[in-house]
Design goal:
Hypothetical protein af1432, seven-stranded mixed sheet, 19 helices
Length: 402
């Protein structure tokens, strides 16, 4: 029996990163032998086992039998290491390491790591259309470019309608990982470059070519702005939920009139959440970002009553941390306008800090003391409102003129 460390574990070690998981391939053995040795079977459909928290898979070859990622027949008889590695997606994920630390690299994965290149091994790449999203995700995580031939194959997969067979859960799993990557915008740029964006994220693709007033958006159309905002928020926050909010904040601009994009955006995000089966927190942040990101830009000119209504609608008192995420998205929205001379001045955190101070002071109001002065419940509510107004008006004086 021979055991080799394989896949992403080897890739990450060569990149100087601690491997997230240790995955092994086993040659010259059978499932019955592994069971006798104390390995525990996991999953369905493949001969995969766990031991000491690590995953061990019997070497296999695969043959696609249908459009689904589960439509495969597997062979485990007399499979060589090269045959097992050849079924993997990219060369950088198709290396192995033996027990002596020797790297086994049949397909040039080490060279591609050095050249920061994502390259498919063979045409079997197309057997699982999810690999289109995986390649785009690796581009976001590693900052690598996609090989021209691989990009062409990815476009062929998209044009053949194969992406339609990917389940919403698998699409979202890759997207969520991409949103947590160093530069999430690369994920969407790669998908766009191989004609996959319009198929996987039609709501985002609809933003391309939507012109905006040059006075406010010298950077170009809504799609160009969205990518810049995603880059800006990625510098401000590593949280994928916040980044998702930034990604969809202007999604309503695909529907005219543009001034109604917050309301239209909420509708689109809810539809998107249903289609992709988004987790609740992502849906909530998407709705919050689309519906309320514009308030931040107008706070200098809004009346105190309107600001309080904004706080209440955004549930700023109940969930200050999430409200702060919204404010970060608004800062990224302001700053995501490129380097044109007529772009709006970049914002720091001064305005954000003033707003958060408002929330803190409102949350620290002595409601018991106010209750002793009230004559009725309605009077009590009015006294609270007056106290909140007083705080907002005082803090508003610290805002710099627009």
């Amino acid at each position: 029996m021979e055991v080799y460390l394989v896949g992403g574990s080897v890739r990450d070690k060569l990149l100087g990163k601690p491997p997230k998981d240790l995955d092994y391939v086993v040659l010259g053995s059978k499932s019955s032998e592994l069971l006798e040795l104390g390995y525990k079977p996991v999953g369905k459909g493949f001969e995969v086992f766990l031991k000491n928290g690590n995953e061990y898979a019997l070497a296999r070859t695969e043959k696609s039998t249908g459009s689904s990622h589960t439509d495969f027949t597997c062979n485990y008889e007399q499979v060589s290491l090269k045959e097992d590695l050849s079924r993997r997606d990219l060369t950088i994920n198709a290396m192995a390491e033996d027990e002596n630390g020797q790297i086994i690299d049949y397909f040039g994965g080490q060279k591609d790591l050095e050249n920061k290149l994502l390259r498919h091994i063979n045409r079997a790449f197309a057997d699982d259309p999810l690999r289109v999203l995986r390649a785009a995700r690796f581009a976001a995580e590693l900052g690598f470019r996609v090989d021209a031939n691989t990009l062409e194959l990815m476009q062929q997969i998209a044009n053949a309608g194969m992406l339609e067979h990917i389940s919403p859960e698998r699409v979202w799993k890759e997207t969520q990982k991409a949103l947590a990557a160093d530069r999430p915008s690369r994920f969407f740029k790669v998908l766009d470059s191989c004609a996959a964006l319009e198929l996987v994220f039609p709501e985002l693709d609809a933003l391309k070519g939507i012109e905006q007033p040059v006075r406010y958006h010298p950077e170009g159309d809504v799609w160009a702005h969205t990518l810049l905002v995603l880059d800006e928020i990625s510098d401000l926050s590593t949280d994928p939920i916040t980044r998702f909010g930034a990604l969809v904040h202007d999604i309503g601009k695909a529907i005219k009139p543009m001034y109604a994009h917050p309301e239209n955006g909420v509708i689109i995000v809810k539809q998107m959440a249903k289609r992709l089966k988004l987790p609740r927190k992502y849906k909530e942040m998407g709705v919050l970002a689309t519906g309320y990101h514009m308030y931040f830009h107008k706070l200098n000119e809004l009346k105190a009553n309107t600001i309080l209504k904004f706080f209440e609608q955004a549930r700023a008192y109940r969930n200050k941390a999430r409200f702060q995420q919204l404010l970060l998205i608004s800062i990224a929205d302001n700053n995501g306008r490129g380097n044109a001379q007529n772009a709006k001045p970049r914002l720091g955190f001064e305005k954000l800090n003033i707003i958060l101070e408002m929330i803190d002071e409102i949350n620290n109001i002595n409601y018991l003391k106010i209750e002793t002065k009230s004559k009725s419940h309605s009077h009590f509510l009015q006294l609270i409102h007056n106290e909140r107004l007083k705080i907002v008006k005082e803090k508003q004086k610290q805002f710099k003129p627009s």
